[in-house]
Description:
It is built from 15 helices and twelve strands.
Amino acid sequence: MSTDWNTRTKLVHEGVRRSQYGEMAEAIFMTQGFVYPSAEAAEQRFVAIGEDEFIYARYGNPTTRMFEDRIAAIEGTEDAFATASGMAAVNGALTSLVKAGDHVVAAKQMFGSCLYVLEVLARFGVEVTLIDGTDLDAWRSSVREGTKFVFFESVSNPGLEVIDIKSVAEIAHAKGAMVVVDNVFSTPVYTRAVALGADVVIYSTTKHIDGGGRALGGVVCGTKEYIRGTLEPYLKHTGAAMSPFTAWIMLNGLQTLDLRVRAQTENAAKVAEALMASDKISRVSYPGHASHPQHALVMDQMGAGGTMVTFEVAGGKEAAFKMLNAMEIIKISNNLGDSKSIATHPATTTHQRLPQDQKDELGITSGLIRLSLGIEDARDLVADITKALAAI
């Protein structure tokens, strides 16, 4: 495919593998195994798999490979490996890189399940240092010679703190550490993490890439050496493969990713403004607004504010629940990046298992609501929020 194509064109046409029938839409190859013309051919394929050859769906599949090729082309990496969920991608990317005795540094501002994976690594003898990801001096003092990798979310969940990918990558690479970035909130539409210095980029494709709330999925992007030499052996033996049907869903989701994310971002900016005008909201965080403490970095690294808004309802959990229960268009769920707008109460759902002192440190208060904006009409969303605020 052409490297000169722009993003929207790549999202539609990259990575297509057509059968002898010349189908227009991407085909679903719903098979777990593959037939060989002879025993000798089977032996040879297990010795060396060709560029367009497959052995078993846990190792790869034509439909899954189409998705991997397309997302790698968008992300600007040599290769990618699709997984059964976003957390399978996180677990595979991190665990495949370390052994007992290794040291890693990670931002403390991140999704609860990502923190859990780091806890598991620590149980098995990996030294994990958690720091304030927005503090470059903390990165400088924590990353040392022998640090295996650094890990962070480019935009944190749920606080929407923005990590300076380029600066952290320079710090890490100076000490020989790899840079692993979870880029879910920013999406490949707004941030090319590899161009800023990331070595490995992770997505939960369940989020914006699917965009329809239909399927779980994940993907890890990186160099061919890392994907096929380090990551694939771990994932194919531990069983985290994406199903062909899910890969087909993700391929179709990619076609409209750029259009949807930009529409969602426009809605997020308008909703943030409406929330800021209410005296029932004590705090609003939106990376695209000038009030965000890292707004300059956001504009440089993303160029837009993204699809997520977080805000704190004055009155704590009781008031937050009243607002959530009064919403009609915006649904209560723990997903995000959907075409439908979704509200989440992190303290009692996605980050519920965190100790209270850790919630306090991360700013996850009882009144905090995380809002993922969809593609509905912004006027309807603002009216829905205005009505819900009146219920408090």
